[in-house]
TrEMBL record, chain A:
<keyword id="KW-0963">Cytoplasm</keyword>
<dbReference type="GO" id="GO:0000166">
    <property type="term" value="F:nucleotide binding"/>
</dbReference>
<keyword id="KW-0285">Flavoprotein</keyword>
<dbReference type="GO" id="GO:0005737">
    <property type="term" value="C:cytoplasm"/>
</dbReference>
<dbReference type="GO" id="GO:0008115">
    <property type="term" value="F:sarcosine oxidase activity"/>
</dbReference>
<keyword id="KW-0288">FMN</keyword>
<dbReference type="InterPro" id="IPR006278">
    <property type="entry name" value="SoxB"/>
</dbReference>
<dbReference type="Pfam" id="PF01266">
    <property type="entry name" value="DAO"/>
</dbReference>
<keyword id="KW-0274">FAD</keyword>
From TrEMBL, chain B:
<dbReference type="InterPro" id="IPR038561">
    <property type="entry name" value="SoxD_sf"/>
</dbReference>
<protein>
    <submittedName>
        <fullName>Sarcosine oxidase subunit delta</fullName>
    </submittedName>
</protein>
<dbReference type="InterPro" id="IPR006279">
    <property type="entry name" value="SoxD"/>
</dbReference>
<dbReference type="Pfam" id="PF04267">
    <property type="entry name" value="SoxD"/>
</dbReference>
<dbReference type="GO" id="GO:0046653">
    <property type="term" value="P:tetrahydrofolate metabolic process"/>
</dbReference>
<dbReference type="GO" id="GO:0008115">
    <property type="term" value="F:sarcosine oxidase activity"/>
</dbReference>
Length: 437, 109
């Protein structure tokens, strides 16, 4: 949820007894009962802390959700386990730990629906697959229509989703009110005219997603290396041969760049440009209150989205800054704009105190669709451009990126090439998705 | 809150009075340009963590476009100047060099 929480969890785990090089014990009700009998002294570290080797088959830069998921599926689907995941900060400390955890797949364009729906379906079994509780909660997501333009847009999306095999439906205001009683649907400025309802969308615990993947990767023998910043990308004859890092040079055959907001900086190291720009996107949470809403509501017209966390906090996503920056803070006036607009639709919010605010750096493309692609340098693959909505795509993105890196091609990534812009083959979600994502 | 000085009105003003217009000093391509040139002009953008040059419009003031030299990492502003220039004034370049020795941006340094 926020920076502080992630750090505390990390310190806790570091204090646990160390058991390097041994397979991870499975988490289960039986294991908890067993540990309860011996004062919980037998828990291992969730994943092994390692130093880099000289060479790997594959290096993934960025141990956020997408990077770790890529490594996980390289091992699980393709048997490639000589893999290092390098992280300049700490595990899941970037956008993975800063988003509002919304999962949905109700996109307009077919290539988007394919990868986001793959992702949503992978979330359904993720806790079982990883043996790690990611607290996936398919509580349902409404995207509110508050203008006539949105009514037409979302009806169109509902039809497109029907053709894509993604289950969504257009619902009328009375049904919106029934699903979310705290909402005022008769507001003077932004009346609720209906909504696009995806009952199988929801939320998941974002830190757990990163930790679950890290644990599974570590279990397959991969090295998750924190505080290891890539300083340069080494090439020979137009092909990648390794990276120079703050922990020394490391060689590799293939390199996956999965660094979100810093993709432009990494691309510059490798000598090419990307059609992305980085901006700060912010979110905030209120003080914890008793359960008040059990669905996720997105209001794109007013640039706000809202859900209630398991801790009881109202989690509010806001807008992006109107200029490039790398500050992980965001401009203050966006909070006022977001909250002002949400208060009309959710009057009860007016009485809440806000606890924390934070920002993440998102890399935004011209058509608001991601880039999963080969690059001008042989052996370098890039996964970026998820912009303001990457968390929901974590497992699907990893699945597709792993296939692309292992086989050189994937049906899920074909349309998301970084060269699509010059060919005019946009996957235009900027109109369909708006800002809230 | 980002504060910039409009070079036309001379007013120090908040970002809420302004509208960002993306990368500055783009070279407009026309008929006869190559595909690469068009791709660069239309889609590729400088995205540095550090010195950056941008277009801004004093939208709730004089309404005019101007350019700003800024650090995207610290939000430090090096200076603003009128939009009718092909490259940043020497005075602004010197200011940047004093604070960020060895900087470069596109073809400028």
């Amino acid at each position: 949820m926020d920076l502080c929480k992630v750090q505390i969890e990390w310190v806790d785990a570091a204090c646990l007894p160390q058991a390097f090089g041994t397979p991870m014990k499975r988490y289960s009700a039986f294991a908890i009962a067993k540990e309860a009998m011996r004062q919980h002294t037998g828990w291992d570290r969730a994943w092994a802390k390692r130093e880099p080797k000289k060479k790997y088959d594959v290096i993934i830069v960025g141990a956020g959700g997408h990077g770790l998921a890529t490594a996980y599926f390289l091992g699980k689907n393709f048997g490639i386990t000589n893999v290092a995941i390098l992280e300049k900060g700490w595990l899941g400390g970037g956008n993975t730990g800063r988003n509002t955890t919304i999962i949905r797949s109700n996109y307009l364009q077919d290539p988007s629906a394919a990868i986001y729906e793959k992702s949503r379906s992978l979330y359904e079994t993720m806790s079982q697959d990883l043996n790690y509780n990611v607290m996936f909660s398919p509580r349902g997501v409404i995207m509110l229509a508050q203008t006539q333009h949105e009514v037409r847009g979302y009806k169109r999306t509902a039809h497109a989703n029907a053709l894509q095999g993604v289950t969504t439906e257009w619902i009328e205001p009375a049904r919106v009110k029934e699903l979310c009683p705290i909402m005022n649907i008769d507001g003077p400025r932004y009346p609720v005219l209906g909504g696009l309802w995806q009952a199988r969308g929801g939320t998941a615990r974002h830190d757990a997603v990163a930790w679950g993947y890290a644990r599974a990767c570590s279990d397959m023998g991969m090295d998750v290396i924190q505080q290891c910043e890539v300083k340069a990308v080494r090439q020979e004859g137009g092909k990648v041969v390794g990276v120079d890092t703050s922990k020394g040079p490391i060689d590799c055959d293939k390199l996956g760049m999965v660094v979100a907001g810093h993709s432009g900086v990494m691309a510059q190291m490798a000598g090419f440009r990307l059609p992305v720009e980085s901006v700060a996107l912010q979110a905030l949470v209120s003080e914890p209150i008793k359960p008040a809403m059990d669905i996720v509501v997105m209001a794109n017209t007013v640039h706000g989205y809202l859900s209630q966390s398991d801790k009881g906090e109202m989690v509010i996503g806001g807008g992006t800054d109107g200029f490039n920056n790398y500050t992980q803070r965001g401009s203050f006036h966006h909070i006022e704009e977001t909250v002002r607009a949400l208060v009309e639709t959710f009057p009860m919010l007016a009485r809440l105190k806000m606890l924390r605010q934070w920002g993440g750096i998102v890399d935004v493309t011209g058509d608001r669709s991601p880039i999963l692609s080969k690059t001008p340098v042989e052996g370098i693959f890039v996964n970026c451009g998820w912009g303001t909505g990457g968390f929901k795509a974590t497992p699907g993105s990893g699945w597709a990126m792993a296939e692309l890196m292992a086989k050189g091609q994937s049906p899920l990534t074909d349309e998301f090439s970084m060269f699509r812009f010059r060919e005019g083959k946009f996957i235009d979600e900027s109109v369909a998705a708006g800002v809230a994502h | 809150m980002l504060i910039l000085r409009c070079p036309y009105c001379g007013v120090e003003t908040d970002e809420t009075d302004l509208q960002g217009g993306g990368q500055a000093h783009l070279k407009r391509e026309g008929p006869g340009s190559s595909d690469d040139d068009f791709e660069d002009y239309l889609f590729m953008r400088e995205n540095p963590k550090g010195v950056h040059f941008e277009r801004w419009r004093h939208v709730y003031g004089c309404g005019k476009w101007f350019l700003a030299a800024r650090c995207t990492n610290t939000l430090e502003v090096f200076g603003t100047y009128p939009a009718q220039t092909l490259e940043p004034p020497q005075e602004i370049k010197d200011k940047i060099t004093a604070k960020r020795p060895g900087w470069s941006w596109g073809t400028f340094q």
